[in-house]
Specification:
single chain; mainly alpha; MetI-like fold; 11 helices; 0% strand
């Protein structure tokens, strides 16, 4: 009965979440519109002006082309950063000696500014896609390492002993014991990774690419077209929010389901 009552109390909050989100966004849009009307300035265009710029570049196909190029770079850098960072993080978290040796390296890379990494990548490897994607990934890898290292440190040694007693082997232990415990850390690294990578990608494109959202923002900055800058920005933010709601949040909920069941 208590559980049913608790579920009944939680249900309305889940059902009302989309409506609350919509209302919050509408309030933000209204405040923006009012501020633009009061300011009467080119530096703060009203929503209709931004919508007009969006439709203009969408009609020519430019917006979707540049948006697609940025998404390709973000996806490639995300996969690269998660693969390398996860492997290093799990290794450091499960090997104390290696962690002591390489912890200063990790602290160093965590504190190197992203702009420095991007500039050095372009100087050393040229203005090409490999340098761009590599610079984005290198800026994210240390964060993934830190997150997965903490996850590896939090692994339950009792479950590992159980797997050894029942002779699971490496692959079965990894699949049924290690990875389920690390799923929340993978979800956390993925969420923070997406929010960081796409911002770095815009800087990479602004400095050394001839296409992408960052390149277009730089172009319209030179033309002092604030409406177009906001149109490209909001279009890309909308795509990232869609990825957040459709992919990241369901993955995060699934990754913590076993803990809720255990509780």
């Amino acid at each position: 009965m208590a559980a049913e009552a608790a579920d009944g109390r939680r249900a309305p909050s889940r059902g009302g979440a989309p409506a609350a989100t919509l209302v919050s966004l509408l309030v933000l849009l209204a405040l923006w519109w009012i501020a633009a009307v009061v300011a009467q300035s080119r530096t703060l265009p009203a929503p209709p002006a931004v919508a007009e710029a969006f439709l203009r570049d969408a009609a020519t196909g430019e917006l979707f082309f540049h948006l697609g190029m940025t998404l390709l770079r973000v996806a490639a850098a995300f996969v690269l950063a998660m693969a390398i960072g996860s492997a290093l993080g799990i290794w450091l978290g499960s090997n104390r000696r290696a962690d002591r040796i390489f912890d200063p390296w990790l602290i160093l890379f965590l504190n190197v500014p992203a702009l420095v990494v991007i500039v050095l990548a372009y100087i050393w490897f040229g203005l090409n896609e490999a340098a761009a994607i590599g610079a984005i990934a290198v800026n994210k890898i240390p964060n993934v390492v830190v997150t997965l290292r903490e996850g590896a440190r939090a692994l339950d040694p009792g479950l590992a002993e159980m797997a050894k007693v029942y002779r699971f082997g490496f692959s079965r232990t990894l699949r049924h014991v290690t990875l389920p415990q690390l799923q929340p850390y993978f979800a956390a690294a993925s969420r923070s990774g997406l929010s960081l990578i796409w911002k770095i990608a815009l800087v990479v494109e602004l400095l050394g690419r001839s296409n992408g959202v960052g390149f277009q923002i730089h172009l319209y900055f030179q033309l002092f077209d604030v409406a177009a800058i906001l149109a490209y920005t909001l279009a890309f933010v909308a795509v990232m929010l869609l990825i957040e709601f459709v992919l990241v949040q369901p993955f995060e909920a699934r990754s913590t389901r076993w803990r809720r069941r255990a509780a």
